[in-house]
Amino acid sequence: MDLFGEALKDYQKGRYTEDLITFTSLEQEDILPLPHLFRSYENMPFLEQQALKLCRGKVLDVGCGAGSHSLYLQERGFSVTALDVSEGAVQVCRLRGVKNVVHGSIQEYSGTKFDTILLLMNGIGVAEKIQSLGSFLEHLKTLLQPGGQILTDSTDILYVFEEEDGSFRIPAMEDYYGELIFTVEYKGQKSKPFPWFYIDFTLLKDIAENQGFKCELICSGDHFDYLACLTINTY
């Protein structure tokens, strides 16, 4: 079931009656308002605005969703490829006017090189597990032009485990506290559970550097979130 895509199509076609609901293995429930996925640049979070300002050359927008980032860049003359595993998202991007949209996963994408790869809205979590992040970054290397960059945002969710005394209680069975299992609900239907992760900047930097990247902290947000830029280290 492509519940995410169905929700986007409903909103695009004027059938907006309810939002997406996300559930995580932390037993948290959150509302994902559909209008947020169709937002203009002015309504984007600060970190996303900063990422779009830093884009250069040919851009790959991974996990493009409704295409808001791609549209903004396209309108400013960038050559943008929007990529999403959701068929519904791809349809909506095309309806909204994104010129180059690809239906597929980033892990299987190849053949074209880019100056900027965007992984926004915690898009780096598409690697699914921290253990897979190194090989995922190696794959992204094959998609970068010389001097190319990866722009990604994420959040250190350690605060979720903070106790009243300032200590942290992290479940002993967890490999890394940022690894979660998500489920999406829309109009009474639930998706199959799928893995995703949030990653703190220090760990991202360590893994990226082990794969031959330079990892720079661009800026931090108001709630443990940050924007990072990865470039291939030429030594």
Name the CATH homologous superfamily.
Vaccinia Virus protein VP39
CATH class: Alpha Beta
Task: Give the tally of β-strands.
Answer: 12
CATH topology: Rossmann fold
- H/E element sequence: HEEHHEHEHEEHEEEEHEE
Outline the low-pLDDT stretches.
none
| Span of the ends, CA to CA | 46 Å
Written description of the protein model:
Helix 1 runs parallel beside helix 5. This protein has one domain: Rossmann fold, CATH 3.40.50.150. The radius of gyration is 18 Å and the shape is globular. The protein contains seven helices and twelve strands. Strand 4 (80-84), helix 5 (87-96) and strand 5 (101-103) form a beta-alpha-beta unit. The longest helix is centred in the middle third of the chain and has 12 residues, at 130-141. 27% of the residues lie in helices and 29% in strands. Strands 5-4-3-6-7-12-11 form a seven-stranded mixed beta sheet, with helices on both faces. Strands 1, 2, 8, 9 and 10 form a five-stranded antiparallel beta sheet that branches. By secondary structure, the protein is of the alpha/beta class. GO terms for molecular function: S-adenosylmethionine-dependent methyltransferase activity. InterPro entries: Methyltransf_11, SAM-dependent_MTases_sf. This is Class I SAM-dependent methyltransferase. It comes from Lentiprolixibacter aurantiacus.
Which key features would you list for this structure?
globular, 7-stranded mixed beta sheet, Class I SAM-dependent methyltransferase, alpha/beta, 235 residues, 29% strand, 7 helices, Rossmann fold, transferase, 27% helix
